[in-house]
DNA sequence: TTCTTGTCACCTAGGTGTTAATAT
DNA sequence: ATATTAACACCTAGGTGACAAGAA
């Protein structure tokens, strides 16, 4: 699903945040290699601000080249640019999302793709469902962490060497309470099965190729320790 | 939910088995007390034959007292008795269902009621979904086991003392591919939320009392170590 | 004006007993 | 005859963006 992340990223990925908590789409998922089969690991994610700015939806009525004709919708006027609205709001409570299967053996984690589809984003500063709290209209970079559960008694001493972090730049996004770029909306509708109700193309054409994905297999992912991971998040 | 199990048991509980696997209803669930908060435990269930017999649906056309008029359905003729049809079929592959949260700390298990709602029963001898395999038209007794995960290196030596088993006789049942006793069918429809589509009573009456449960709080559960458990399965 | 909230129709995903057809 | 199977309508449970109303 790396291609899908990059397709969103080229448009400027947006993720909805709600009071109750909203899943990410695409889902962040990884294929893991190189773990000690018999050792225990915890897998988790967190989110770091990409900058210290607050954004707002900008209007470029004249930019007809970027936003041509037909696919222009209600928010098309907003979709052409993000403008800096000022300094970032106060940082949200820093939370971490443990993959619910944590802890588990290396063999278990490597058996198949690990999916963080239970992770939810919220803009409620007082959330007590354990969801990730983000500021709307701010940009974030998801991070993935692997923590080795050290069996030694004085494991605290080795905390620094017992985890590795990974960043996939194509998964960065802007948190929003409503989509700003109409092209993002259309791509979500086209690719998220739960949004199928808003598709309006000829149903027959979906039968053969359910998703109009770009077929650009660009290899631009970044990782702090690429040797440990195979593939990339979905 | 102990009252519900007993209500079914008084009629002769039946559980559907299918090729794909079918949940049990009621769900087996327990409230646990007395664990070591910091120790690891695995929780699991298995099923033992209650006897070495095969049953068949018997008909007592004359028993009008038991099966009176209105609630008689298509299988009413069958519902009045179970007849012994002969010796038990060859034993099914003996399987065990680990609660999916296993292993976990005692504190985690005791935090709330533990529910075995992921457990599924099948009659497919070649099942490879890890479901519990049972012979249709045979009677079974569910068992619940608590296994202490011994941190000692030679933990195998203490295997015998590191687990305890519990039996609740009100959860015994006959495995079937289709319900035989029409009263069981009606009680399932009345009490299982997923069968709500088959309820046909006055919708208004459900508003106040969603389930016509018996209010007989008979205390007849058996347990090999009652002191460890509080309450009973649902 | 711009952003946020709550409700909604419309989906996915999967658990029910029913029913008709098939198997034993 | 009796038991099993597979397709089905009808539910629960919850994930979508649209939309109208509200807030800043």
TrEMBL record, chains A, B:
The keyword Hydrolase does not apply. Residues 216-225 have a biased composition (Polar residues). Coiled coil: none annotated. Residues 1-200 form the T-box domain. Keywords: DNA-binding, Nucleus, Transcription, Transcription regulation. Residues 200-234 are annotated as: Disordered. This is T-box transcription factor TBX10 isoform X2. The chain holds residues 1 to 234 of 332 of the full protein.
């Amino acid at each position: 699903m790396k291609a899908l992340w990059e397709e969103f990223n080229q448009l400027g990925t947006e993720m909805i945040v709600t009071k109750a908590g909203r899943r990410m789409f695409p889902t962040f998922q990884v294929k893991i290699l190189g773990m000690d089969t018999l050792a225990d690991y915890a897998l988790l994610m967190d989110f770091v601000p990409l900058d210290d700015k607050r954004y707002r939806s900008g209007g470029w009525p004249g930019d007809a080249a970027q936003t041509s004709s037909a696919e222009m919708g209600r928010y098309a006027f907003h979709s052409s640019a993000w403008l800096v609205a000022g300094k970032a709001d106060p940082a949200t409570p820093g939370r971490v999302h443990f993959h619910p299967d944590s802890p588990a053996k290396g063999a278990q984690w490597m058996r198949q793709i690990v999916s963080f589809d239970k992770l939810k984003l919220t803009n409620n500063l007082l959330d007590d469902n354990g969801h990730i709290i983000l500021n709307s209209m701010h940009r974030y970079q998801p991070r993935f962490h692997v923590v080795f559960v050290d069996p030694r008694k004085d494991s605290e001493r080795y905390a620094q060497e017992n985890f590795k972090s990974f960043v996939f730049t194509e998964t960065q996004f802007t948190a929003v309470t409503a989509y700003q770029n109409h092209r993002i909306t259309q791509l979500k509708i086209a690719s998220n099965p739960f949004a199928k109700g808003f598709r309006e193309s000829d149903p027959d054409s979906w039968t053969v190729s359910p998703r109009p994905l770009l077929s650009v297999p660009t290899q631009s992912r970044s990782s702090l320790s690429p040797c440990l991971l195979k593939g990339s998040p979905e």
